[in-house]
Every structure is written in structure tokens, then in C-alpha cells.
Amino acid sequence: MKLAVYGYDTIVGKLVLEELEQGKIVIEEFFPLSPLSAEYDAVPLSGKNYKIECVDEFDFAKADAVLFLSTKDESERLIPKAQAANCVVIDNSHLFSGAKGIPSIVKDINPEKIVEVRAKKLATVPLALTSQIVLALNPLHDEFGVRKAAITALVSVSEHGELGTQTLASETTRLLNGMSVDVTDFPAQLAFNLHTRVGDINEEGSSLLEDEVKKEVFEVIDPFKDGMSLTCIQVPTFYGHTLSVHVELEYDGSVDEFKEALRKAPDLVLEEDMEEKTLVTPVSCAELDKAVYISRVRKQGRASFDFTAVMDNTAVGEAAAALDILKMLA
Question: Which tens digit of pLDDT belongs to each residue from 42-80?
């Protein structure tokens, strides 16, 4: 495969390069793309150095596929150019979150959508929260039928990219040294704080992130009979989203049957099944295998269960998700 990557130096881009170094996808040619012209540096990959090229001067016909790990504005500007050159775009900017007719793929859930990707020369990588919810709920939906889900998502600051992680680091350092912080890019201080919303609120009281995630979830899996409620809370952690999930099922089952349905899913790990007994947290899951970690499964009544799900949102929810689509294309 001849692959171009725009945003190779972002948080997600660096994780993508780490994965490509492992050789799981055979790369014949690699094109690291930059918004800057006259960029004379190079990017190392698998023992070779690849010259950085300006994205505005790049001929997309030289690549089979391109990963856009940049902003919505840049994706909107450049995607038509890449498609016109017969280059398949895998977009991680979330420009098309929940959009009808744009294939959104989660590995092992809807791989058949890759046919649409080839035809349209475009795939969108779901939001990390979307992937996490879909991976956790789809095996239950298949086994019992999910009638309704109520989810509280504790969202790490890396949801906002480097702006989030750098702001949290800076504010933490200043506060620990007895200095005040200037809040400019977020509605309130991030460090040592919680935000009861992530993004702007619409007239119905939902945030943009919550609306986008709900649309994406039901683009990937069949809708639940009584829908899904989602509340996103901003928490002062760098990486790793945590979900508190309440599900009401069409058909009842025991706790053991509920857990067994989760165990069958290839991307889920029950905390109690881990060889090294440890508390899975946003910090610890970054050092573990790339999976969604399930814990605290409880039955709350007939066909009603609660559980928690933790996932590294950058390594699994974005980098691995983009590469999964790339592997299907390869």
C-alpha cells in the first residue's frame, strides 16, 4: 500500500506511526504531509526516512489511501482533491460525524461497509466515545436485545487533542506552584475540576458531542427500541474515557449469562478475568492491551444491568480505529 498521512505529528498521528512500525500493514511508499511548504525534514518509518511534503503541493494520485488526522476545516478543504485523484480518504477529523451516507466503520461490527468506502473513496473514523459504546453494547444487543441505554461518559481532555492535554498540564503546574490560571480556551478551569458539559448546549439541553455520538452509534448498530441517553462530563484526566452504563434488555438473563455475552466479544476484557489482578483505570488501561475493559457488572432488576467500561481513547478509539479501516482496505 502507498499511504499518505496528514497529521503525522499529532497525538493520534504519533500513535499511528508506532503501530505502522510494527509492520502489520505492508507500506510500499509513505508520504508524511505537512501544512508548511519548504519542509526539509523527514519522518523515519521501518528503517527508512521519508521526506515531508506540503499537503497543498502533494499529488494524491501517488497514494492509494490517505489518513486525515487534522482539523475539520482542513478535511473539508482537501478531501475532494484526494477523492478526485482516486485516493481513498480515511478521515479522523469527525467532519462527517453521524452524517447519512458516509461509511463509519467499527472493526468486527460492520466490516461490510468497506465496500462503500471503496466506492465513495471515503470513510469516517467514529468518535472514540462512539466506538467505546458500540463495542460495549453490541454483544448485548445481539444476545439479549438492548431496549434502552443510559450512559454517563467521563471524558478525558485528550478528546480536544493537544489543546486539552497541554492546557491541563499547564494549569496543573501553575496551581501546584501557587499561581493562578487564565481560562481562555475552555469554559472553566480543567485542572482539579469537573465540567458538567462538553461543548455548547442546544435548545433541548444536549451538547454537540452527545448529539454526534448518538447519531454515530445508530449509524453503526441497530437503534434501541427506547433509545439511548448520554451525558458527557469533562474530567481532569489526560487519556482514557470511562463509561458508567445502565442497560434495559428485551430478554432477561443472569449475571453470568450477561458476562458471558461480553466475554464472547473480541475487543472486550472483563477486569475479573485478567491474569494480573489490577484496578483498571484510565491510567492503567494505557499500559494494557488495546481493548475495552469491563468491570462492576451488577443486576438491578429484571433485564436491567449496570457496568463500567474504560478505554484508551487515543490509542484504541482513534489510532487503532483508523488503522483497522486501513487494514481492511489493504
Answer: 899 888 999 999 999 999 999 999 999 999 999 999 999
As beta bridge partners, residue 305 has 247, 299
Question: Is 137 strand, coil or helix?
Answer: helix
Q: What is the largest CA-CA distance in the chain?
A: 65
The Cα 80–Cα 302 span in angstroms is 51
In a 13 Å sphere around the CA of 317, the CA atoms on its Cβ side amount to 34
Reference 234, options 251, 209, 256; nearest CA is 209
Dihedral over Cα of 19, 25, 29, 32: its sign: negative
- On the CB side of 57, CA atoms within 13 Å amount to 10
The reported pTM is: 0.92
Q: What is the pLDDT of residues 80-108, one digit of tens each?
A: 999 999 999 999 998 988 788 888 999 88
Parallel, antiparallel or unpaired: strands 268-270 and 292-301: parallel
Whether the CA torsion 257, 258, 259, 263 is positive or negative: it is: positive
